[in-house]
Amino acid sequence: MRILFDNGTPRGLAGALTDHIVEEARSRGWDILGNGELLDAAEAAGFDIFVTTDRNIRHQQNLTGRKIAIVVLDKARWKLIRRRLPEIAAAVAAAEQGSFVEVEIPTD
Known about the structure:
25% of the residues are buried. It is globular, with a radius of gyration of 13 Å. The chain has helices spanning 35-44, 57-60, 78-81, 85-94, and strands at 2-5, 21-24, 49-52, 69-73, 100-103. The protein contains four helices and five strands, in the order ββαβαβααβ. The chain starts with a strand and ends in a 5-residue tail after the last strand. By secondary structure, the chain is of the alpha/beta class. The protein has one domain (2-103). Strands 2-1-3-4-5 form a five-stranded parallel sheet, covered by helices on one side.
């Protein structure tokens, strides 16, 4: 699967998703796009999954009819995320076209 990381998604996460092709929005010059435009561009470019730390995306965007799956990490700190790599990888593996899932990242 092709995965697009939003700007706040820690790069280290890509190491846990080795069975996938991971790109960053920034590397495509998409870091200037708003969420709606970014999702449109990602879908047009054939990405399957969008990984973000923007917990408000569900409320800011109409996700109905989207082809891309969205995986939201509820924390952005690598120190916390790296402890939950198996759970995040499982959420990515289970993502289906148009799905939305939020992965809770505990602080303990």
